[in-house]
Specification:
Elements (H helix, E strand, L loop, with lengths): L34 E8 L2 E9 H16 L14 H31 L9 E8 L3 E9 L10
Antiparallel strand pairs: 1-2, 2-4, 3-4
Helix pairs in contact: 1-2
């Protein structure tokens, strides 16, 4: 039997090698955060006012920034290694509209599923007020499928 005395054991050296992995962004996987008021149904049209808090939108903005940060080249940083703080300074205005749209779409789908609404098409959402610090207020309209009952033969 041969014993190697001079070779160090792989992985048990005197130093530790670490990899910094950012925490996952708490975005659209969370439960619904939309607050609904003034629900009304007129025939096959279901309308309501809703508020989405700023932290939900900010979390999605951060998720979009991290996705963008994986491919963007910023002087002074390796590709994919740009800190979130730098990404926020440079790219927040670019990704915020996409993030707002993604949050609205997710929240409307979650609300329709929660209320067991059968939608006839894509929901209409009109933003009535938006402040990055306070959140988003909108008015949404769902067009519903009619309930059809077939008579027995």
């Amino acid at each position: 039997m041969v014993e190697l005395v001079d070779t160090p054991d792989l992985g048990s050296g005197g130093y530790a090698m670490g990899v910094q992995v950012p925490p996952p962004a708490p975005h659209l996987d969370n439960e619904a955060v939309m607050e609904v008021k003034n629900q009304a149904q007129h025939g096959l049209k279901y309308t309501f006012d809703a508020t989405i808090p700023a932290p939900a939108i900010d979390a999605e903005v951060d998720a979009q920034l991290l996705k963008k940060g994986a491919s963007v080249a910023v002087p002074g940083f390796r590709r994919g290694k740009v800190p979130l703080k730098v990404l926020r300074q440079r790219y927040t205005d670019q990704v915020r509209p996409q993030a707002v749209e993604a949050v609205i779409t997710h929240e409307l789908e979650a609300y329709a599923k929660e209320k067991n609404l059968k939608l006839a098409g894509v929901p209409d959402a009109h933003i009535t007020n938006y402040d990055a610090a306070k959140g988003l207020e909108m008015q949404a309209t769902f067009h519903l499928l009619p309930e059809i009952t077939l008579p027995q033969y």
